Amino acid sequence: KNNNKLFKYDTYINSFLFSSIMGITLTMLMYPISLGLSNYSGIFDNPNNLGVFVSVATLIFLFLLIRNILVKDVFLIVIYSILSVFSLYLVSISASRTALIGLGTSMFILLLIIFIKQVSLGKITIKWMLLSIFSPIIILLIFVIFLNSPLYVAFEENFVAKSISRGSDVTAGRTIIWESIIKNTPFFGSKDTSVKELLGFSAHNSYLSILDTYGWIPAILYTLFWIFSFIKSIRQFMNTKQNRLQNAFAVTSIALFMSMSMMEVLTHTLAVYVGLSGVAILQINDKELK
């Protein structure tokens, strides 16, 4: 039974690992990276799609890195460290705000619930206290160094400038598109009022894309599915001592998909399969506990 469960979990992870490495390899071979590159899209039709894909790859690489740190496999630690750093670099040159927000949000949520769990278990030791004190100081020092480095110039051009741009930038008008969908979509949806059909614009939001296409009931059910899955993943992580790494993956994968879905339509991408894999892992572990 345990071997069967482990096989299912490893099947999910290994399938995404294979997809991630293949996608990155093809991108590198067909569209070589050069210095000073920005808005890089590789084999994808736009930089944002690359950013979303690589953010999923980053999540997979990081969890495999953690798993191999726990088993102390030095060779694989080096391999996954390199892959993690390189995938983060691809996120930066893609200039994808969706990917940056998704990764930042999911990792923050994971660290927060780990901290809360340690507090609830009364396991805040001197080591944890020192880590809590010195971590912000180290992060601040890194941030100061970053602000005075050439990397900040690239970050400012790729992310900050895009975020404050207006005028002809279609993505700057996302709120207008979202307001139009919410105000004009009938209860059961209609092709005649679809923003995509009328204006040719994407909803740039997975939840509103469902609303725009199918109406309010499917959109509400779709949103509730992910909310309840996320809540369940947190509860399982907080309340069980078994399968901690698997439960952490479930929390992070669902959080990554949900946060990126607020900025882009991801219902047909690799990201949704990672999110659904997190849900599947929850169900597998839930049955094990019963």
UniProtKB/TrEMBL annotation:
Entry-linked InterPro entries: WaaL-like
Top-level taxon of the source organism: Bacteria
UniProt feature coiled coil, ranges: none
Molecular function terms, GO-annotated: ligase activity
Keywords: Ligase, Membrane, Transmembrane, Transmembrane helix
Residue ranges crossing the lipid bilayer per the database entry: 12-30, 50-67, 74-93, 99-116, 128-147, 213-231
Designated name of the protein: O-antigen ligase family protein
Gene source species: Ruoffia halotolerans
Higher taxonomy: Bacteria, Bacillati, Bacillota, Bacilli, Lactobacillales
